[in-house]
Amino acid sequence: MAFRNDIVERVQMVVAAVPEGMTFPGPLPDVAERCGRWAPDSLSASASGSSDEKPTPRRPRWRIALAALVVLAALGAALALPLALGGGGRATPEQRLTTIRRMLRDSPLVDGHNDLAWNVRKFLHNKLGDFNLSAGLDAIEPWARSRWSHTDIPRLRLGQVGAQFWSAYVPCGARDRDAVQLALEQMDVIKRIVELNTAHLALVTDAAELIEAHREGRIASLIGVEGGHALGDSLAVLRAFYQLGARYLTVTHTCDTRWARAAGTAGGLSEFGRAVVREMNRLGMIVDLSHAGEETARDALEMSQAPVVFSHSGAAALCNSSRNVPDELLRKIAANGGVVMINFYAKLVTCGEKATLEDVVAHINHVRRIAGVEHVGLGAGYDGIDAPPEGLEDVSRYPHLLAELLRDPDWSEDDVRKLAGMNVVRVLQHVERVRDQWRRAAVLPGEETAGVRRGDCVYGTA
Question: In the 8-state DSSP scheme, what is residue 325?
Fold first, then answer.
């Protein structure tokens, strides 16, 4: 009834706006007949006259046509209202979810961080012979009983994930030992997982390939190396990682390197650390500052000529974890053109053991308020967290998060599209433009070293 009354009010407003010289001969019979029993008295009075009244003179066709157009315009405006509000306003949760599902068919959802490959190493020792990601892992041991398992192809499809950065994670215990080898093995297993599931996944290395894979209905799969210690303090290894498909490097993990300090420790980038950032700009690899210390992040933002990301972090103002990003750095990210991708780990969302979907929305809104809607994204960290928020239990739940944002009239569909993935696509494109500019300028590969390390040998000829 409220919907119908809204239409009638719109009809009355349009009629009231007709200029003085253009009058209607009494009430609009066509409108009253169309409105039927729900028409207000002012519109239905002429339709209830007695049979002995004089016949109403025939009205000119233009007046009848105009009355019909008034009704049609009002109906169209009323029906379009929920969409005009970005799904908010009068839209039901089901309508908002329908809007999101339609949007994600046209525009990719890009998640910045997933640790599935490390679980494959833990559970299967990277042996994929019996590993069927297209099956529901939530019903297969040991995945079904693991609190760290949230990802498989059926759930990725339900979540309408359009692109995923798969993490080639290297634990800090491998630093100065076999970190380079572990990184290579993790990149290898990611590529083999993709090759075993080409009906659903496609390995991509740039923004254009990402968009094309999404158009084909496949999940664009990118590689991010997590932990700068995986380089073994070598720019040559960095270049090799890029050639193997790595498109971001998380400059630290929970441990320092010789050239960068991790979150919670003092100090920033060394001269070699600056050379790493410069070489990543030259190659076209994204600098990822999740896990980096504040001074390291400031140095990298100052040094980088391309946008950077925090691939799986949150807002420090809401949870004062060293992993999260303080407002000062959020403003610098905005100036740099980068993106903070919101992590779903409860300990980073609420600084406690539990969190909800609404708590994640609060982080998204805070980053938007400080940095702007162009600088916020999603980096859940699934398969690397054991306490996802209520309502975001696994990778199938992304549409519900985005539909919740549409409740807020400040979030338009275009804003949600940027958050979901287009901000990250823009960063990729910008990083690639910087790479291409440096190639045209014939910038040579870096040759800096981190200095002689304990145990290094210098070989020569006799």
Answer: B
Please report, for the chain, how many H helices and E strands are present, in that order. Answer: 18, 9
Helix segments in 85-178, DSSP class H: 93-106, 116-124, 153-158
Average pLDDT over every residue of 374-385: 98
Q: What is the pTM of this model?
A: 0.81
Angle between helices 294-303 and 327-336 (to 10 degrees): 20
- Where does 307-383 show beta strands of DSSP type E? 309-313, 339-342, 376-378
Distance, CA of 377 to CA of 276 (rounded, Å): 25
Confidence of residue 63 (pLDDT cuts 50, 70, 90): low
Structure tokens at 81: 């209202």
Q: How many residues are given for the chain?
A: 462
What mean pLDDT value characterizes the chain? 85
Question: Would you call the peptide bond into 142 cis, given omega within 30 degrees of 0 as the criterion?
Answer: yes
Q: Going along 38-169, which residue ranges are E strands?
A: 109-114, 161-169
H-helix or E-strand containing 299? helix 294-303
> What is the secondary structure of 369-431 as a DSSP string?
HHH-GGGEEE---BTS-S-PPBT--SGGGHHHHHHHHTTSTT--HHHHHIIIIIHHHHHHHHH
Reported as a single tens digit per residue, the pLDDT across 5-42 is 444 444 444 334 444 444 433 443 333 333 333 333 33
Contact 276, 235 (CB under 8 A): yes
Q: Are 380 and 116 in contact (CB under 8 A)?
A: no
Q: Which of 14-28, 305-319, 334-348, 379-393 has the lowest mean pLDDT?
A: 14-28
Tell me which DSSP letter residue 148 carries.
T
> How far is the CA of 345 from the CAs of 17, 158, 312, 363, 434, in angstroms?
55, 21, 9, 12, 33
H helical segments located in 175-223: 179-196, 207-215
Q: Residue type at 56? A: T
- Taken in order 170, 118, 396, 317, is the CA torsion positive or negative? negative
Q: Which residue bears the tokens 């961080």?
A: 113
CB 292 within 8 A of CB 253: no
Residue 166 forms beta bridges with which residues? 114, 223
Express each pLDDT in 159-175 by its tens digit: 999 999 999 999 999 99
Cα separation, 349 vs 161, whole angstroms: 22
Query: Do 381 and 250 meet the contact criterion of CB atoms below 8 Å apart?
Result: no
